[in-house]
Amino acid sequence: MAVNQRRAGAFLSYVALAVNAATTFIYTPLILSFLTASEYGVFQLIGSIIAYLGVMDMGLSTTLSRFYVGAKVKEDSEHVENLLAMSAVIYGVLTLLSLVVGIAFALLLPTLLGQSFTPSELELAHQMMLLVLLNCIVVLPGNYFLAVINANERFVFARTLRIARYLLQFVGVIAVLERGQGAIGVLAVQVALNFIADIAYIFYYRKKLHIKAKLHHWDKKLLVHIFSFSGYILLNMIFDQIFWKTGQVVLGAVVNAAAVGVYGIATQLITSGYMEISNGVTSVFLPKLTAMSAKTEDMTEINGLFNRIGHIQALLVWGICAGFVVIGREFIYVWAGPEYSEAFWATLILMIGLNVALVQNLGISVLQAKDKQGFRAIVYIVIAMLDLLVSIPVSMEFGVVGCAVTAAIFLFVGTGPIMNWYYHAKIGIDIPEFWHEVLPVLIPATLAALATRGFSLLTGFGPSYGSILIKCLFFVAIYFALCWKWFFTDYERGIIRGILHKFSRKAA
Fold first, then answer.
1. Which of 292, 288, 312 is nearest to 300 (CA)?
2. Do residues 47 and 133 touch, judged by C-beta distance below 8 A?
3. Tens digits of per-residue pLDDT, 248-295?
4. Could you report the per-residue pLDDT of 103-133, keeping only the tens digit for each?
5. Are 272 and 51 within 8 A, CB to CB?
6. What is the predicted pLDDT for the residue at 476?
7. Which pTM does this prediction carry?
8. Is 326:471 a contact under the CB 8 Å cutoff?
9. Is 282 left (phi over 0), alpha (psi -120 to 50) or beta?
10. Between the CA atoms of 90, 48, 378 and 89, what dihedral angle is there, to the nearest 10 degrees?
């Protein structure tokens, strides 16, 4: 059952990604058309604050999943009950703490943004902060129940609910925009759906998992272990927020609200699309890796999994990056509008900076499973702080593109040579073998991009959704043909044949 849940979970992750991409593709231009550039910038900025408050989870959801699996492997039911009860108490405290931090954010808005925002923009930000505070009360308790559901490898339920949320958000956002409720209405839809998701998590937790949380005793040693483990995850979460949200705050402080909107388009494409391509596979493997690490220190099986998953991720991630090189400018022009054209360069630069990290995303789960996250957390938080310091003067001089270049350079340095040395020297992952397996994927990606560029020049299609679709189909056809002939592994061909066989049987 667990294997089927992982396979179905990974598949549904990509279905969710496709649904999210499709709905975002449709309603983002609607948002941009209903909101002014400055109002959209305020909306993006408030989204950054929500992301900051999401850090108040402190990595506890991943920690809970990891510790829960470890306790189940040892068949210690009393420890499981105690862990769940203690985690519930901790989540309650963190929820209160997030409210305090959210109120502090609201009070500091005039100080942080008074020089670059107009009075009407500040007033809108204050109104939206009330919804942010309500969101704090909703999101953190939901993370507790979702963590337990994922730890039990019930990925089908979790991913199906995510797909439903994307669809409901799409309908809700269009409805509030048509009613003229603007950015506040869009945020209200998101908060309401978070609340509905919480109810669904609680119902599944109680009715389907039949798990009991009981505080047998307050285990101080366990508490220290929880916070030492989650502390490293927290540092990584802070790193993520500095890279993907602080850039918008910096641009809001030193440039203007419109620049925040442009950079927001780029980071939305990266975090909601490009990064999710990689996360769709790796997000279902933490329970399995934890169980493997608890049973043996031998790295043979983990190395094999690391190479297989990394090759699949490279095919997906580098293929999308190559396609964006030749089609991305036209896509941004048609989708977001000519006033957001600078978002193409920001997106492409950030993609390149992430190209090592995303093909090795499983390494994060390996470190979490082995409880060896310290080095990565320290490296990432150092380069994140350096990025923050450097991005301020660079953004003042070069605006959105300068902010993106700074982030990309530090991303590449941290995730490339530094982490590859650590994975190889300290964890035991065979990095030379990994790159020997993965680097050839650059060949079909490059050839498909060049062919698509030639096709674009020959046809002379102008900027339109039809033109984008034709070029995307051409790129995919060339890329898939090259990969099937020379670059897919037998494992990947087997997956594709299996999927086609299932569809053919259903059709018959």
1. 292
2. no
3. 778 877 777 678 778 888 888 887 778 877 766 665 565 666 666 656
4. 887 787 777 676 767 777 788 777 888 888 8
5. no
6. 93
7. 0.70
8. yes
9. alpha
10. 0
Cβ-proximal residues to 158 (8 Å cutoff; 6+ apart), any chain: 9, 146, 149, 150
Residue carrying structure tokens 């496709």: 18
3-state DSSP of 383-446:
HHHHHHHHHHHHHHHHHHHHHHHHHHHHHHHHHHHHHHHHHHHHHCCCHHHHHHHHHHHHHHHH
Per-residue pLDDT at 293: 63
Return the higher-pLDDT residue of 290 and 159.
159
Measured between alpha carbons, how far is 181 from 175 in angstroms, rounded to an integer?
9
100 contacts 87 by C-beta, under 8 angstroms: no
Average pLDDT value over all residues in the chain = 81
> How far is CA 150 from each of CA 66, 91, 285, 415, 508, rounded to the nearest angstrom?
10, 17, 10, 26, 35
What is the CA angle 453-458-460, rounded to 5?
90
Please write the tens of the pLDDT for every residue from 44-96.
Answer: 777 767 766 666 665 677 777 777 776 676 666 787 788 888 888 888 888 88
Q: Smallest Cα–Cα separation from 127: which of 66, 183, 189? A: 183
Taking each continuous run of H as one helix and of E as one strand, the counts in the chain are 21, 0
Distance CA 220, CA 86 (A): 10
Distance CA 416, CA 406 (A): 15
- Token pair 């030749």 is found at 326
Distance CA 16, CA 160 (A): 8
Residue 168 sits at the vertex; the CA angle it makes with 166 and 173, to the nearest 5 degrees, is 95
